[in-house]
C-alpha cells in the first residue's frame, strides 16, 4: 500500500534558523574575502596562465554542503551543512563581477549592489515560501517525528539548545532589543530618525549634480522612508509604542531593500557599513516589537483571569 503524498513540501521547523546561519556565513565570507584580498594586494593562486579563482573553492564548499545531509543523519550535520553552504556561496557570489562583464572585471562597481540584491532576494523567497503562514498539523507531526529521530541518532541524550556564554548574554540581549532598557530604546528610535535624514542627503546632492531616472528613484525611496519614519516617531511620541515600532520597522526595511541598493551602487563595498547599521537597528526594533507584543499578551491574560 503506497502512502499518500503531500500536496506541497513539508516545512522544517529549523529551516529558517539554518537559513539565517547560511546568510550570516555568506555575508561574513564576502566581507572577510574582500578585506583579505585588499590587505594582501590581491594575490593569485597559480602560475603562468593558470589562476585558481576562489569561486572554485566556493563550489567545493557548496558540494560538500550538499553531500553532508545526503550521507549523514542529525541536526548538527544539517547545521554544519548550512554554514558550509554559506561560506561556499559567499566565495562564489564574491566573483560575480567576472561573469557579468565582458572583460571579467572583478572590480565592477555595481557588484556590491548586485550581491546585496541577491541576499535580499533570498530573504524574500524564504519569507514568502516558508514564513507567511503557521505550520500545519501535518507539519507539526512531521517535525515531531524528525525531532524523535534526531534524539535516537544522538543516543537518546537530551542536548539543550545553544546558549550564549554569561559574559556575552547581556550584550546580545541588549542588541536584540529583548531586554527592557528605556534609554537604549529611545536611542534606537532617535537613531532610526537620524538614519532617515542622513539617507536623504546623498540623493539630493547627486540629483542636483547629475539629474537622471536612477537619481530620482533613489530620492523618491529616501523621501518615502523618511515619511514612514516620521509617522513612527509621531506615534512613539504619542505613546503608541506597538504601532510606532511597526512603522519604524517598515521604514528600515524600505531603507534596506531600496535606498541602500542605490547607496551601494554609489559607494560600492564601503557602503556596507551603513547596511550593517541598518540591520542592527532593524534587529533592535523587531526585538522591541516582540517585547511589546509579549507585554500586551500578558496584560490580556491578567485581565481575563481577573474577569
UniProtKB/TrEMBL annotation:
Keywords: Membrane, Transmembrane, Transmembrane helix. Coiled coil: none annotated. The chain crosses the membrane at residues 21-39, 51-69, 76-93, 113-131, 183-205, 217-238, 245-263, 269-285. It comes from Micromonospora sediminicola. This is Uncharacterized protein.
Amino acid at each position: 500500500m503506497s502512502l499518500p503524498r503531500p500536496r506541497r513540501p513539508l516545512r522544517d521547523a529549523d529551516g529558517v534558523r539554518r537559513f539565517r546561519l547560511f546568510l550570516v556565513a555568506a555575508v561574513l565570507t564576502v566581507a572577510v574575502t574582500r578585506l583579505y584580498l585588499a590587505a594582501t594586494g590581491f594575490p593569485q593562486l597559480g602560475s603562468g596562465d593558470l589562476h585558481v579563482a576562489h569561486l572554485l573553492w566556493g563550489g567545493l564548499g557548496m558540494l560538500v554542503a550538499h553531500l553532508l545531509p545526503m550521507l549523514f543523519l542529525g541536526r548538527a550535520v544539517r547545521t554544519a551543512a548550512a554554514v558550509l553552504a554559506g561560506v561556499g556561496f559567499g566565495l562564489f557570489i564574491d566573483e560575480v563581477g567576472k561573469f557579468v562583464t565582458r572583460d571579467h572585471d572583478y572590480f565592477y562597481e555595481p557588484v556590491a549592489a548586485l550581491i546585496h540584491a541577491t541576499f535580499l532576494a533570498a530573504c524574500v523567497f524564504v519569507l514568502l515560501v516558508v514564513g507567511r503562514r503557521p505550520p500545519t498539523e501535518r507539519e507539526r507531526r512531521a517535525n515531531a517525528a524528525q525531532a524523535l529521530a534526531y534524539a535516537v541518532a544522538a543516543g537518546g541524550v537530551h542536548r539543550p539548545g545553544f546558549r550564549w556564554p554569561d559574559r556575552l548574554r547581556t550584550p546580545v540581549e541588549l542588541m536584540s532589543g529583548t531586554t527592557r532598557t528605556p534609554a537604549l530604546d529611545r536611542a534606537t528610535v532617535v537613531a532610526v530618525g537620524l538614519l532617515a535624514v542622513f539617507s536623504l542627503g546623498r540623493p539630493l546632492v547627486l540629483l542636483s549634480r547629475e539629474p537622471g531616472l536612477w537619481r530620482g528613484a533613489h530620492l523618491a525611496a529616501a523621501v518615502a522612508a523618511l515619511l514612514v519614519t516620521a509617522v513612527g516617531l509621531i506615534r512613539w511620541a504619542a505613546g503608541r509604542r506597538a504601532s510606532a515600532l511597526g512603522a519604524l520597522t517598515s521604514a528600515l526595511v524600505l531603507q534596506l531593500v531600496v535606498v541602500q541598493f542605490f547607496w551601494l551602487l554609489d559607494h560600492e563595498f564601503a557602503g556596507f557599513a551603513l547596511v550593517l547599521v541598518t540591520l542592527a537597528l532593524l534587529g533592535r526594533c523587531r526585538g522591541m516589537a516582540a517585547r511589546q507584543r509579549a507585554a500586551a499578551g500578558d496584560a490580556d491574560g491578567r485581565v481575563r483571569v481577573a474577569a
